[in-house]
Amino acid sequence: MRLSRQIGEALADGLTGKGAQLAARRLARLLAADAVALADCEKLLATAGSLDPDAAQALLVETLDVLEPVTAPPLRAAPLVVSGDLAGCLLVSGDVSDADLAEAADLVARALDHADLVRARERIAEADLRTLRAQISPHFMHNALAAISAHTRTDPERARELLTDFSDYLRYSFAGTGDFATVADELHAVQTYLELQRARFDDRLDITVRIAPEVLPVPIPFLVVQPIVENAVRHGFESRPGTGHIAVRGFSEGPLCVIEVEDDGAGMDPDVAKAILTGSRAGSGRIGLANVDKRLRAVYGPEYGLWLDTAPGAGTKATVRIPRYARGVHA
């Protein structure tokens, strides 16, 4: 019983957490197995003892295909099903019975389910996403209305189009349906926002948006991309003369969805960028970047989030990396 509790504690951060290796060692002790491995739906993540990596990978693929225990002596494997969703696989080597393997897989699945519930409660405590929806920059709203007003006499048709864009943008930003949107929805809102900004700057803002079709349906936390784009406008372009360029790109890298927002503005010291993301630089004027990073890591895990690549005079590239498919994340 004590060892079972310790395995659950070691899996508090999930299969990719720092305790997964310890959990594998404790499982090997519990089962008196020669070796134990924990895997997600792609690869082995933690191993205790000696396993043939090629044989283990092949058994992992087979087990996940049939969704039931598989034996390939000296290896045995069982799928890990958490709240009805496939989470990974438990592999063992040695004299382990079918009943013991099934019981161990159930133990791991229950530990992962408990860890998910704990993290969900932490996310609710850390950030009320409905409140975040309402944090639309007054600076942007004032400037958008000013741009629309400036066009009412000189170009009434453009003013009507901008007013429609502004209405669409506000409707999306204050939407009350769910905590997630698709990449397609987020980028539509971003394009609307950028059109309003381009009108404000008399078309001095050059915009490029390139999105691969396969990432358009990927679910993403609501209002993640727009704060990044707003920072690119305010800090990369607003205070400088001449034309500025902002590029928004979305593409897949294997199982990942990657979104990049790049500007050719002033840039910043990399240490300042790091401080902004950790939230340790108060009064930086960077709108919600630490919050965006925190939300992404809370939803997907510590290996995902927001990264800033920048240097003084070299512009800034903000990169969001999230899994294309994540258990429990639906738009």
TrEMBL record:
TM region(s), chain numbering: none
Q: List GO molecular-function terms, semicolon-separated.
A: phosphorelay sensor kinase activity
In terms of superkingdom, the source organism counts as: Bacteria
Q: Which SUPFAM superfamilies match?
A: ATPase domain of HSP90 chaperone/DNA topoisomerase II/histidine kinase (SSF55874)
Q: Where is the Histidine kinase/HSP90-like ATPase domain?
A: 216-326
Assigned GO CC terms: membrane
| InterPro entries to which the protein is assigned, alphabetical | Bact_2-comp_sensor_kinase, HATPase_C_sf, HATPase_dom, Sig_transdc_His_kin_internal
> Per UniProt, which keywords does this protein have?
Kinase, Transferase
Record's protein name: Sensor histidine kinase
